[in-house]
Every structure is written in C-alpha cells, then in structure tokens.
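Quick one, tokens below. Sequence please?
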C-alpha cells in the first residue's frame, strides 16, 4: 500500500523489491488504515451524523459482476472494507443488497476492541437494513444472532405483519418515513437519535442513489478496480439523475496492486 494523495514528504514511488516505508508496497497495519480513514472529530456542538459510503467500481463503471461486488474486489479492498466497518457505529444497507450478497452480521474484531470501547462503541457496528416492504428472510443470522441487534429502517405504512415478524426475530424496527418508503434525511436523523453518528453505507446502487439525491452523503470511499467487464452491470449509484451534479473534493488516495482507494468529501459550506 502506498499513499498517492495528499502528497507529503513520506509520499514516494514504490522502491525496487518492496522495501518497507509508507511509499512502498508493504501491507499497512489495521491501525494505519484506521488513521487514514478516521471519522472527523466532533466540533464544539458535539457529535453530528457523518455518512460515508464505501463502494467499488471497475474501470468501465461496473459496480458488480454476475450480480456481486466480490469478483471486482481485492484483498486490500477487503482490509479497507473491514476497517471502515470497525470504525462505524452502524452500517446502512439496502434490502436488495442483503438478499443478493447474503449479508451477515458485522463481526467484532479483537484488534479494534480497545479503540471501540474508548470511543463508546459496542463490540461491532449494527447493521441497518433499509426496506419498504420488509421482504426479508428473518431466519438468517443477520436477524437471529448478531452481536448487536439489527435495525430495520422502514416507513410508517410498512406491512404490520412483516414488522411483527422482524421484531419477533429480534430486530429493532425504526420508522423513518411517512409512507411505505424511507426518507433518507429522516433515516440519518433517526440513527443519530439512537446514538449512531458514525454512519457507513455499503449500498447497493439504488440506496446510494437515494442518498445522493437527498444530499445526505458526506463522503464517498471509492475503490477503483483495474478491471474491465463490459456488459450492463449497475453503476455504484442508480435511480433518477440529480438536477445539478454534486461536486466532491478529493481527500486522499492510496494504491496497491493497481487498485486505487479514494476518499471524496463534500466541500465545506461557504
């Protein structure tokens, strides 16, 4: 892993043979990755919700291959994936992604246990599933045996029998919309009201598109995979286009084995 941006006196081209040092191809520790992806420190007003997304895309814009993101990922991408989860209070994910990717509960990581305890966090982040119809298999481990209860974000008009099924399985149902769907801004506020201010979403594309349209996304962690897939796979964000493209600023860029690991943030308001 080497840092490409921001450029510092430690930024360097990879040395022959992969000698140690930040500018070389050595594997970064979990602590180094955690420092590189740390959430912003709370201001004088205290913690406020900060929502980041973590997605992967091929060179030609595919967010998936054969319906899953794993084939376009890498070992380094999965290390960052695990680090981002370990830093978060809650992981927000769409119901379709839960069904397609076979989502399981986030696991407690021993190497992050002390840091999470010091930050006032539980042993692992909660998973929050965004769903209108609650068409989910509540017998899965995600609902029956998570280290912390799984949250189900839905609308006030969600089917009562499915709400009851979710609660019976041990999930906590959170109303975040007036109708059948979820209002993204209200979902962020609802999670913050539960003490979850370090928010992470892993999509899928439909959910990310909704978050973009609602202008509640603060940061995008995008892995650019050095692969070409062609085909008609989804992009990282779907749904209707926004009226005016939203400009984000590059915060950092790392590289390993041709994969680029970028962070883009919402520019500060003027």
């Amino acid at each position: 892993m080497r840092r490409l941006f921001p450029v510092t006196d430690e930024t360097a081209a990879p040395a022959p043979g992969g000698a140690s040092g930040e500018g070389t191809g050595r594997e970064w520790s979990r602590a180094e990755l955690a420092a590189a992806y740390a959430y912003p420190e709370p201001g004088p007003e205290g913690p406020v919700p900060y929502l980041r997304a973590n997605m992967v895309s091929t060179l030609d814009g595919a967010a998936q291959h054969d319906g899953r993101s794993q084939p376009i990922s890498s070992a380094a991408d999965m290390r960052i994936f695990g680090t981002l989860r370990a830093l978060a209070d809650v992981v927000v994910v769409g119901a379709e992604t839960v069904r397609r990717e076979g989502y399981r509960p986030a696991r407690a990581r021993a190497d992050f246990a002390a840091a999470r305890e010091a930050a006032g966090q539980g042993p692992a982040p909660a998973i929050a599933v965004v769903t209108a119809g609650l068409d989910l298999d509540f017998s899965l481990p995600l609902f029956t045996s998570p280290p912390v209860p799984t949250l189900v974000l839905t609308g006030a008009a969600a089917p009562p029998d499915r709400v009851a099924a979710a609660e019976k399985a041990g999930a906590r149902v959170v109303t975040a919309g007036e109708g059948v769907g979820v209002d993204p801004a209200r979902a962020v506020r609802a999670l913050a009201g539960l003490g979850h201010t370090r928010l992470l979403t892993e999509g899928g594309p439909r959910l990310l598109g909704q978050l973009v349209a609602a202008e509640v996304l603060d940061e995008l962690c995008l892995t650019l995979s050095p692969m070409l897939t062609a085909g008609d796979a989804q992009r990282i964000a779907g749904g209707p286009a926004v009226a005016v493209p939203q400009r984000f600023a590059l915060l950092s860029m790392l590289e390993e084995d041709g994969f680029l690991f970028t962070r883009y943030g919402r520019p500060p308001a003027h």
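The CA atoms of residues 125 and 150 lie 9 Å apart. The first strand starts at residue 2 and ends at 5.
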